[in-house]
Amino acid sequence: MSILIKNIKELLQVRETHIPIVKGKEMNILPTIKNAYLLIDHDTIVEYGSMEDIQGLDADEIIDATGKIVLPTWCDSHTHIVYAGNREQEFVDRINGLSYEDIANRGGGILNSAEKLQNTSEEDLYLQSSIRLKDVIKLGTGAIEIKSGYGLTIEAELKMLRVIKKLKRDFPIKVRATLLAAHAIPKEYKGNKSAFVDLVIDKMIPEVANEQLATYIDVFCEKGYFDLEDTERILIAGKKHGLVPKIHVNQFNAFGGVPLGVEYQALSVDHLEELNSQDIEALKNSNTIPVALPSCSYFLSIPYTPARQIIDSGLPLALATDYNPGSTPSGNMNFVVSTACIKMKMTPEEAINAATINGAYAMGIGNMYGSITKGKKANLIITKKVPSYAYLPYSFGENNIDQVIINGLVY
Ligand SMILES: N=CN[C@@H](CCC(=O)O)C(=O)O
Ligand SMILES: [Zn+2]
After folding, report:
1. Is the pLDDT of residue 239 over 90?
2. What is the pLDDT of residues 336-362, one digit of tens each?
3. Contact (CB, 8 A) for 51 and 368
4. Which of 193, 212, 258, 409 stands the most exposed, by the fewest C-beta atoms within 10 Å?
C-alpha cells in the first residue's frame, strides 16, 4: 500500500539525514519545503520533494493537500495516561484556596489516584486508558511515553505496566514504558520512607526488569517526596537492571536533582519550573535533555519552565504534556505547543522542534520518529487549510488537524 500526498502547502521538519537533537540557536531553524509532495510506502516515508519534481510518481492512494501543512506527528515524551478515575474534586478544592501541597498532605493527590487504581481491575484500567490514547492520537500524537506510579504496591505497579504493554500491542503508535514506583510515599510507609525505597529497589525494579515491562526508571525527586539520596539509590538500582534514568525534578524546588540526573546520565530531566544556574551548567556538555511541561504550569498556576534561559544558554529543550489526573488532565500536544509560544516565548520553530525531533530524543526513538526523513516511520499530521505554520500555535484551542497518519495508515 502506497500513499502520495500532493500539493502540500508546506512540508515541515524536513531533515535529509537524521539528526538526533536540536540545541540552542538551531532550535529556531525549521527546515521546510513549500509546494511539496510526500510518498509513503507501507509504513515508511520513502520520498519527498518539491511538486516541480514529482513527475513519474504514482501510488495506490492520492491525498490532495492543497492549502494544508504536513508535519511529523508529535512525540509526547512524558505522560501518565494510565490512571483510574479523575480528581476533579481536588481541582475545585484548589479553586477554593487549597494548594497542590495541601491536598497531598491530607492524603489526596497521587495517593488518591493510587487508591482508585488499586481498586480498579486491569481490564477496566485498560479500557479507561485506551480511550485517552485514542483521543491523543486524533490530536496528532504519534509516539508516547507512559509512566507507572499510581500503583505504589508491587501488584498495582505491575498492573499499570501490563496495561501499558497491552496498549503498546494494540495501538499503532510507538509506546515507551517507564517505571515510576517512587512517585509518592504510600500511607502504609508514612514515617518509614526508606523501607518503601528498599521495596522499590529490592522487589519492584528487579521484577519489572525481569518481565521487561519498562525501558526507563523515574523518581519524583521533590521535597516531601523523594530526596537526593533516595533518588540516587533508585537510579543506581535501575541502571544495574538496565533501566535508563528519566526523572521528575525541580517542579516546586531546585535542590540538586538536575546535576544528580546528569551525573547518572539521565536521558531527560523533566518539569524544571524552578531552575538555577548550577542546573543550567550541569546540563551543558551532557546528553541529558531538559523537558518542559507547560500544560502542568497552566493547570496548577505555577511558574513556566524558563525556556528562553535554557535555549539561550545553548541547550536543547523538549516539550511534553505530562497528561495525568492531578496536575495536567490534558494530553493535547497542540495546546502544549501554543502555550510554549504564548507563555514561554518560544518561537513556533522552537516549539515545533521541541515537540518533534527533541521529543523523540527524550524518549529514545529519534532514529525512526520526529522528522520527515527517508526511512523514518510515516507518522504525519495533515492540517486543515491554514494560512501558515505560525497559525498553528497562534490559534490556540482551535483544532487545526484534518488527518493523522500512523505507520502509513490514515487513523
Ligand atoms: N509531579 C509528579 N507527578 C505528576 C503529577 C501527579 C499527580 O498529581 O497525580 C506530574 O508530573 O505532574
Ligand atoms: Zn509527570
Report:
1. yes
2. 999 999 999 999 999 999 999 999 999
3. no
4. 212
220 CA: nearest ligand 1 atom: 2
DSSP codes of every residue in 234-294? HHHHHHHTTPEEEEEE-SS--SSHHHHHHHTT-SEEEE-SS--HHHHHHHTTSSPEEEE-H
Give pLDDT tens digits for 306-319: 999 999 999 999 99
Q: Domain 75-362: which topology?
A: TIM Barrel (3.20.20)
| Domain locations in the chain as residue ranges | 2-72+368-410, 75-362
Tens digits of residue pLDDT in 375-410: 999 999 999 999 999 999 999 999 999 999 999 999
Question: What would you report as the CA-atom Rg of the chain, rounded to the nearest whole angstrom?
Answer: 21
Q: Is 371 in the pocket of ligand 1 (CB under 6 A)?
A: no
Select from 215, 228, 188, 219 the least CA-distant residue to 201: 219
**Does the annotation flag 87 for ligand binding?**
yes
Residue with cell 522528522: 371
Say if residue 15 carries a ligand binding annotation.
no
Q: Give CA–CA dist 370/380, Å, rounded.
A: 10
Q: Do domains 2-72+368-410 and 75-362 have the same CATH topology?
A: no
Find out whether the beta carbon of 220 lies less than 6 Å from any atom of ligand 1: yes
Q: pLDDT tens digits, residue range 175-199?
A: 999 999 999 999 999 999 999 999 9
How far is it, in rounded angstroms, from Cα 319 to Cα 289? 10
- The string of pLDDT tens digits covering residues 91-121 is 999 999 999 999 998 889 999 999 999 999 9
